[in-house]
Amino acid sequence: MIGGGDGYISSIYSIILNVITGLPVNNFIYDYTDWEDSKTNKVGIENLKNMNKFHIIIFSHVLEHTHDPVGTLKSALPFLEDKGLVICEVPDERYHIIRGLLRIKFRLRCHVAHFSKRSLYRALEYSGLNNIHTTYQNNSSYRGNKMGSIVGIAQKGESSLKTKLTSTRIQEAFSLVIFTAKKVLSKTFSHFKNQIISL
After folding, report:
1. How many domains does the chain have?
2. What is the Cα–Cα distance from 109 to 86, expressed in whole angstroms?
């Protein structure tokens, strides 16, 4: 199994897969930087070329940092076994779409790509993966911090099953409005609560 970032999520998946299968799970972290950490199995592109292919590749909070999410997914596929799985998790930041449309400035962000369930599905599809499923996870936890996320899972190789998008553009638009309204109401309530407490 290989993952990105600092390996937090892929280490959790490694433990789960080891418990379920009883087989040892090798966990590697792909990193194209020169960052070193002796506690992890960090590998670069040259190391990957000399290794066996992986059963699972995880992109946990990676794709939102790339200018070309489809290209990033495609670049990983040569290292994935046929019928192997790609698991993606990205933050649910759909409210930024509304902020952008309203030309509301927001602070400097390190996320250059923002996703909906539909757009994550399309990114997986355009990268050549099959058996795709995406879903919203409203109570996801990343290192103990509660946050909304969008999770996708897909399979490499030919498929006799042809998955299709279950949400229409209208459903996605409605979902975006509801999501944004909840965010706005939550922030407004929090602001008023803090104002009352400070009195």
Report:
1. 1
2. 26
